[in-house]
Every structure is written in C-alpha cells, then in structure tokens.
Amino acid sequence: MLKNIDKKDTETYAIIGAAMTVHKEMGCGFLEAVYQEALEKELQIQAIPYNREVELPVYYRDIRLKAYYKADFICFGTVIVELKALPNISGNEEAQVINYLKASGKNKALLINFGSQQVQYKRFVYNLREK
Predict the structure, then answer these.
(1) Which residues, other chains included, contact 65 with Cβ-Cβ below 8 Å and sequence gap of 6+?
(2) Mean pLDDT to the nearest integer, 56-67
(3) Report field, pTM of the whole predicted structure over 0.90
C-alpha cells in the first residue's frame, strides 16, 4: 500500500529542501544528468548522507535476475531518490519508483522532477507485507 509520508519525516524534508535549492539556483531546462550532479553537490554541502546510482537487484521466485534497477540516490541509507527532468511526472514515473521500492526492500522514496517551472516531488511509503 502506498501513502504519503508523515510530515514529521525530517529526512525526506531535508532531501526536498536540497532539491529546491538546486532548482532555485538552476531553474528548469537542463538534462537529468546535470540535476543529478548538482543535487549531489548540494547533498554534500548540506551533509546529507547518500550513495549515488545504486544498483537494486530484481528477483523472480527468489532467483536473482541479471536485470537490475539503478536508483539515482539512496539518502540516509533508507530513502530512494529518483530524479526526472520532464514537463510533468506521470503514472509511469510513479510506477518506476514503486518498483524500486519493491526491488530494494526499502519503504521510503522520493520522485523529484526538475523539468517544470517549480520543482515537483512526490513522497512514497511502501508497506512491505510478510509472504
């Protein structure tokens, strides 16, 4: 089940704040790779712990597949951050983030879009159920 994260989630708020700083500085119109590098610099400036371009393995019936996902960032060791530079985010990008949550076993994610006049973001919580 997906739902919005509690407003008291200081980790996602810190990441969103860093993204807003990047967007305020750069505006829209750059490629995703540019925003990814700029956000990495801002995460460093704000001392937000992160790993960049983290491979997320995918399993089928407990068998690891050769295919994998690659998350743009994992911050604080718990929050998947997926970046986009599109006019608007859609259900396709949201589905991608949900699949990242399923593959990683993590339960928090941010989808951040730098491609519009104002930075867009969506927060997700994925409640993993016991098999």
Answers:
(1) 57, 58, 59
(2) 93
(3) no
